[in-house]
Amino acid sequence: MSSIDLSRFNFSGGENAAPIEDLTRLPQEDQQRLVLAGIDVHDNKVSGAFMQLNHADVHCTTRQEGLDLMDIRAALKKFDGLPQYYWKLLDPNKDEITRMAYEHLNGGYFVRARKGVKISQPVQSCMFIKGNAAGQAVHNIVVVEEGAELNILGGCATSQHSNDAAHLGITEYYVEKGGKLTFTMIHNWGDSTTVRPRSAGVVEAGGVFQNNYILLKSVGSLESYPRIDLNGEGAVATFNSVIVTPTGSYVDSGSAIHLNAPHTRGEIISRTLTTGGTIINRGFIGASATPVKGHLECKGLIVGGGRVHAIPELDSCRDGVELSHEAAVGKIAQEEIEYLMARGLDEDEATSTIVRGFLNVDIMGLPAPLKKAMDKQISKLNAGGAM
């Protein structure tokens, strides 16, 4: 992971920004930026909503019994510093990113599904940056207690006119026995934005963690490598990602699953497409218990230039593990294009059809309106570049 000069970004000021009670009153251009990050401010079918604007919590509502949702700073005060969760999975001195987030906490959220509570409607969380040279350092904590279920839709974006911004995001996930967490993250950054998430999670016996990540827009530089430890028997973790890098974008992204208990299962599936940018696609599954199963699949497509570097890793020193991986980087086969052209499509239409199939998000189990929005974005991709 590369270092960055954090001193050029402003990580203070505006902490007391006025609340936004009604998100539909946001400027239309901001609403449009959020829609492309999966956040529809007109959607009332949510169990809770949280919005962070630069350094301020400007919106936080809950509509579900058994759901805690609040600014992380408020949670630290209310729950005596959250000693069982706060900085327990990540070391604040790990690197310059964690140190900055520890020393200059700008916000973030604490969300918890209480024991046995199954929350059917998603919690909507939004991290939004406006202005030039703005830095945002947040810390999120997600807790799914025993037997509970939680679905989070996280959207991160910069405003249309934001320039040279930085987002540093710390996230810690805790899935207790028999709990289930589905976490979908969609990014819509600007082409000069620096993004550095640091994430880790633990899943206890019988727990399920599913992570979906979608990046279809330009970003200056993004580096992300979340780690999940399956510490309880029968725990399951899945990472699905769809990433597109146009010219000028640099993405170093991956995920790691550690199978630490018997009968745990892990799967990492990624689809990457470059139309001129750079993608380093990492994946790691390690097994320290038996019997366990893990599968890693990373496939990259180069359309119109760019670079894809796939780095799949499997690691174990135990008998009886079942770990596998598939990795492929290539181009669209000419015979596939010719097949579709023979059926009436021109070359661009044929290429776009193949790209849409390659970047299929069906596996993510997204809500129908969100899937429709993502499919619409993917349909606008073409051989010459991405939106």
UniProtKB/TrEMBL annotation:
Ranges for domain SUF system FeS cluster assembly SufBD core: 130-358
Signal peptide: none
Highest taxon of the lineage: Bacteria
Family in the record: Belongs to the iron-sulfur cluster assembly SufBD family.
Pfam families noted in UniProt: SUFBD_core (PF01458)
This protein's name: SufB/sufD domain protein
Gene Ontology biological process terms in this record: iron-sulfur cluster assembly
SUPFAM superfamilies linked: Stabilizer of iron transporter SufD
Organism, as annotated: Desulfovibrio piger ATCC 29098
